[in-house]
C-alpha cells in the first residue's frame, strides 16, 4: 500500500482518502493526469468549509503557496472549487 502526504497537516493517507490538486498558471485545478500534483486530506478540506479561524487559514494558505511556488489567493480558489463540486 502506497501512502501519500497531505501538504497541510503532513498526515499520511491512502490515495483514495485524499483530494488531488495541481497549480497551473497561478490557478488551482483538480488534477488532470498531467504535470505535478499535491494532495489535501478530507479533514483539512472540511476546515475550509467551516468558519475557519486565522491560524488554520494561514496554515492552509502557506501550504498552498509553497506548493504553487508563489503567493496568490489559493485558499479562495480552493473554497470556490469545493463549493462548485459539492
Order of helices and strands: EEEEEHHH
Q: What overall form do the CA principal axes indicate?
A: globular
What's the total count of β strands? Answer: 5
CATH superfamily grouping? YlxR-like
Give a description of the structure.
The protein is α+β, with helices and mostly antiparallel strands. Helices cover 41% and strands 24% of the residues. The strands form 2 sheets. It has a 3-stranded antiparallel beta sheet. The protein is globular and about 35 Å long.
Topology readout:
Layout (H helix, E strand, L loop, with lengths): L2 E3 L6 E3 L3 E7 L2 E4 L7 E4 H8 L4 H15 L5 H12 L1
The gist of it:
This protein is of the alpha+beta class and 86 residues long.
Summary keywords:
86 residues; alpha+beta; Hypothetical Cytosolic Protein, Chain: A; three-stranded antiparallel sheet; two-stranded antiparallel ribbon; 5 strands; 24% strand
Amino acid at each position: 500500500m502506497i501512502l501519500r502526504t497531505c501538504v497541510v497537516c503532513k498526515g499520511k493517507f491512502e490515495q483514495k482518502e485524499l483530494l488531488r490538486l495541481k497549480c497551473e498558471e497561478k490557478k488551482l485545478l483538480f488534477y488532470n493526469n498531467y504535470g505535478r500534483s499535491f494532495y489535501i486530506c478530507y479533514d483539512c478540506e472540511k476546515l475550509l468549509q467551516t468558519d475557519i479561524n486565522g491560524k488554520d487559514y494561514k496554515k492552509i494558505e502557506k501550504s498552498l503557496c509553497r506548493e504553487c511556488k508563489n503567493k496568490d489567493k489559493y485558499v479562495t480558489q480552493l473554497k470556490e472549487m469545493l463549493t462548485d463540486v459539492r
